[in-house]
Amino acid sequence: MSRFIGDSEKLAREAVKDDVERSMKLLLEAYSTSMRLLEEAYGRSLGEAEKRLREEYSNLEEQLKSLRSRLEFDLRSRVIERRNTLVDEVIREAIARIKSMKGEDWYKSFLERVFDLIGVEARSIGSLVVRVSREDISLAKSLSEKYSGLIEVSDEPVDIIGGVLVESKNGVVKLDFSIDLIISRNDARLRNIALKALLG
Fold first, then answer.
1. Whose CA is closest to 152, among 135, 172, 132, 134?
2. Between residues 48 and 147, which one has the greater pLDDT?
3. What distance lies between CA 176 and its chain's CA centroid?
4. For 148-173, b where at least 16 C-beta lie within 10 A, e where not — what string?
5. Largest alpha-carbon pair distance within the chain?
6. With contact defined as beta carbons under 8 Å apart, do 115 and 149 qualify?
7. Could you give the CA distance from residue 193 to residue 198 in angstroms, rounded to a whole number?
8. Average pLDDT over residues 88-104
9. What dihedral angle (degrees, nearest 10) is formed by the CA atoms of 106, 110, 112, 114?
10. In angstroms, what is the C-alpha Rg of the chain?
C-alpha cells in the first residue's frame, strides 16, 4: 500500500515534488545533452573552419607564388627587352659611324687587303665578279685595275654596310668579305661590349 494513504494534501505535495524533481532532472539532462551537442557541433565547425582556412591560406600562398613568379618573369623580360633595345641602338650607331668613316684610310686599306685575297682566288679559279655598296663602287673599280681580267666590279650595288661580295661568273663560287658578315659572326661579342659600355 502507498505510504501516503489518508493524507491527500501530503500526497499531492509529494507528487508535485516528484514531478518537479523529475522535470528538473530531465531539464538538466536535456541541457547537458544540448550543451554537449553544441560543443561537438562547435568543435566540428571550428575544425572545418580551420581546415578551410588552411586550404584557403595554401591556395592564396600558391597564387602569391605564381603571381610573384609572373611578376619576376615580366620584370626580367622587360629588363632584357629594354637592354636589347639599348644594345641595338648602340650597334646601329656603331654601324652608322662605320659607314661615315668609309672614306678614311683604314677602310681603303681593308678593301686593298680584300682585293689582294680575291686576286689570289681569281688566279686559281678564274675571273670573279665583285659586288659592293653604292658608295664603294668607284673605290672598288680603282682597286680592281691592279687585277685586270681577273676581277670585274659590278655596276649593280648590293645592300651591305661595306666590304665585298664575290662570285664566279658561273655563280658556283661565292665569297663574302662584307663588314656585315664580320658583324654577324661577332654579334654576341659586340653585344657584350655594347652592354658593358652602357652599364659603365
1. 132
2. 147
3. 35
4. eebbbbeeeebebbbbbbbbbeeeee
5. 158
6. no
7. 9
8. 89
9. 180
10. 49
Q: What is the DSSP string of the chain?
A: --TTTT-HHHHHHHHHHHHHHHHHHHHHHHHHHHHHHHHHHHHHHHHHHHHHHHHHHHHHHHHHHHHHHHHHHHHHHHHHHHHHHHHHHHHHHHHHHHHHTTTSHHHHHHHHHHHHHHHHHHHHH--EEEE--GGGHHHHHHHHGGGTTTEEE-SS----SSEEEEEETTS--EEEEEHHHHHHHTHHHHHHHHHHHHH-
pTM beyond cutoff 0.85: no
Grid look-up 644594345 returns 87
| pLDDT score for 129 | 95
